């Protein structure tokens, strides 16, 4: 399943993890140096939410930021109650 927001289209972003060694100059060292750089991916904070889409209620995967912005119309709470069993 793709890690993409169904509303905003936000997906994973490329980045890198940088390793540094040495002591900072202001702490009395000779400065830090980059020793290795490896690629990594920043994943969006996806949440599974019950929302109203085109008049019907269904589950969608959206980012937390889309929920905070109010882009998602959440489904109303269910008021349906289980029917009571008939006594004989």
Describe, in plain words, how this protein is organized in 3D.
The chain is mostly beta strands and 88 residues long. It has a domain at 13-69. Helices cover 7% and strands 40% of the residues. It is built from one helix and four strands; from the N terminus they run ββββα. It has one helix spanning 64-69, and strands at 13-21, 33-42, 46-53, 56-63. The strands form two sheets. A two-stranded antiparallel sheet has the order 1-2. Strands 3-4 form a two-stranded antiparallel sheet. The protein is elongated, with a radius of gyration of 24 Å. The termini are far apart. The relative contact order is 0.23. The mean pLDDT is 93. InterPro entries: Bacterial_rp_bL28, Ribosomal_bL28, Ribosomal_bL28/bL31-like_sf, Ribosomal_bL28_bact-type, Ribosomal_bL28_sf. This is Large ribosomal subunit protein bL28. One of its GO terms (cellular component) is ribonucleoprotein complex.
Features:
88 residues, two-stranded antiparallel sheet, Ribosomal_bL28_bact-type, single chain, 7% helix, mainly beta
């Amino acid at each position: 399943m793709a890690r993409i927001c169904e509303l905003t289209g936000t997906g994973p972003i490329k980045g890198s993890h940088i390793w540094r060694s040495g002591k900072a100059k202001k702490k009395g060292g000779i400065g830090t140096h980059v020793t290795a750089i490896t690629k990594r991916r920043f994943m969006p904070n996806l949440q599974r939410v019950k929302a109203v889409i085109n008049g019907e209620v269904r589950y969608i995967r959206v980012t937390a930021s889309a929920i905070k912005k109010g882009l998602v119309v959440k489904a109303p709470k269910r008021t349906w109650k289980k029917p009571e069993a008939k006594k004989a």
